[in-house]
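Pilot study result, target chain (114 residues):
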Amino acid sequence: MSDTEERFAMRRQVEDDRIVVHVRGEIDMMVADDLHAELLDAVKQSPRTDVDFTELTFLDSTGIRTFIDARSAAQALGHHLYVVNATGMVLRVLEVTGVMSLLTVPEQPDPGSR
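Predicted structure:
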């Protein structure tokens, strides 16, 4: 197993209404191209793609660019790309850069409230 494979992995899960791409480890320039290809394929195949950051420990600027590009590709198709379960340092990077607000699932109004 290569160093890159030990530091990063992704797995696709197809659900009824979306594709979930689970990412694990570190997203940097070494894996950005592979991730970009995976995300573009997912957004083409499904009207909604969620990228699960539960096991993500590091995200650099090339990773951020990858998500912005994938979001733009999804929007061009009338589809959506969201990041879910970001925590810790990764969440902080997304918030400081302003990217989290672009990739957050919009809150649905509570049908019982008026």
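One observation from the pilot: The radius of gyration is 14 Å. A full batch analysis is planned for the follow-on phase.
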